[in-house]
TrEMBL record:
Signal peptide: none annotated. Residues 74-167 form the PPM-type phosphatase domain. This is PPM-type phosphatase domain-containing protein. Pfam families: SpoIIE (PF07228). InterPro entries: PPM-type-like_dom_sf, PPM-type_phosphatase-like_dom.
Length: 169
């Protein structure tokens, strides 16, 4: 076998290995997307809480650092639109941390105030990521718009981190 032919055969072998690994990675990401999507609110539960709504969710990658969240607490509807730092796997992991943290916080608080919930979320994320708030640490976090709408009083509370509120009547 000539030297060129050996190189060519080795190249084909490496190409096949790369293709196999790529397939495994994509299959893993697709499965991760199923898990991430399962954590998002179902359209039926959103429509039940907020009749006139739409969700624009167009992840850039297979998995995403973006998520939306909703919870009903008596006469209150709590909802959020969130953009986590990072794309792909790091962003998706942050989104899962954000969803589970919001669910925990809302189940534990008695006084529903948007700013307090957002502060508790910040504390929980920092604690989970072992951040102290000092310089030199990773800047992992979330840009979030968080609202609480009271159906009885028609009052809307808003608190945000790097996301303004646009209110249209």
């Amino acid at each position: 076998m000539s030297h060129d032919n050996k190189l060519y055969q080795e190249l084909l072998k490496q190409k096949d290995e790369i293709s196999r690994q790529k397939k495994e990675i994509i299959e893993s990401l697709e499965y991760a997307r199923l898990i991430q999507t399962a954590l998002l609110p179902q359209p039926s539960s959103i429509h039940k809480a907020l009749h006139d709504n739409f969700i624009l969710y167009l992840p850039k990658d297979i998995i995403s650092g973006d998520f939306y969240w909703i919870s009903e607490q008596e006469e209150n509807i709590l909802f959020a639109a969130v953009d986590c730092t990072g794309h792909g796997v790091p962003g998706a992991l942050m989104s899962i941390l954000g969803i589970t943290s919001l669910n925990e916080i809302v189940s534990e608080v008695d006084d529903l105030k948007a700013n307090r919930i957002l502060n508790k979320l910040r504390e929980k994320i920092m604690k989970s990521l072992h951040q102290t708030g000092r310089g030199g640490e990773s800047k992992d976090g979330m840009d979030i718009s968080f609202c609480i709408y009271n159906r009885k009083t028609k009052e809307l509370q808003y608190s945000g981190a790097n996301n303004p509120l646009y209110y249209v009547r």
